[in-house]
Amino acid sequence: MIVYKYDTQTKEYIEDLKINEAYGTNLLFTTTIKPLAKKDGFAVCFNGAKWEYVEDFRNTVVYSKETKQESKISYLGKIKDDITTLKPEQFDKWDYKTNSWVCDEVEKEKARVKNINSYTQSFIYSKYPQPKQSSANLGVYDEAYKNEMVAFIRRIVDLSNKAIENNTSFEDFKAMLNE
After folding, report:
1. What domain of life does the native source organism fall in (predicted)?
2. Residues 6+ apart with CB under 8 A from 108
3. What pLDDT digit, counting tens, does each position of 58-117 carry?
């Protein structure tokens, strides 16, 4: 006689077992009811009375709608409401009305300005590190050097401010300084 074994937790079909009828058919987590045929995207599971198809998205990459954290599905059934298979971009947030990721323009702009300001500071420090600037202010360097440094810093800060005002991308600003 053949019985059909299923998983103790998911109730998913595992295998056919050939048993001796003399031992009976009361083996745990088995049934004499033949399972349904395999079907792509579904697991065949026993519900206690019959076999049924249950959606199977296991190992599908999904993203949290709140945190954008990537994970893989490890359960049977429909995809939970708080995750999506749609991959978010850096500044996206989930829009429940359109059921899609939308760019958070405010955060994107904050990041652009922050990147330009940080790069401006790094660019200035690469030519005139903080100790040199402090020394110049204390009169260690001659007036010509100090004037050259101040003119350079003002020029870079002006370029930075114009880039922010003109909505210049961070990449374009960086390229402009490195020309």
Report:
1. Bacteria
2. 90, 91
3. 999 999 999 999 999 999 999 999 999 999 999 999 999 999 999 999 999 999 999 999
Residues 6+ apart with CB under 8 A from 149: 128, 132, 133, 136, 141
* Global confidence as pTM: 0.72
**Radius of gyration of the chain, Cα coordinates, nearest whole angstrom:** 32
The Cα 137–Cα 56 span in angstroms is 69
Q: How far is CA 40 from CA 8, 53, 81, 83, in A?
A: 22, 10, 22, 22
Q: Taking CA 61 as the corner, what is the angle to CA 6 and CA 55, rounded to the nearest 5 degrees? A: 35
**Continuous segment of H or E residues that includes residue 101:** strand 100-103
CA 41 to each of CA 71, 101, 155, 164: distance values in angstroms, whole numbers, following the listed order:
19, 25, 61, 49
Strands 2-6 and 30-31: antiparallel
Query: Dihedral angle at the C-alpha atoms of 69, 71, 76, 77, nearest 10 degrees?
Result: 30
Instruction: Specify whether the CB–CB gap between 19 and 48 falls below 8 A.
Output: no
Using the structure block, give the residue that is written with the tokens 């360097």: 141
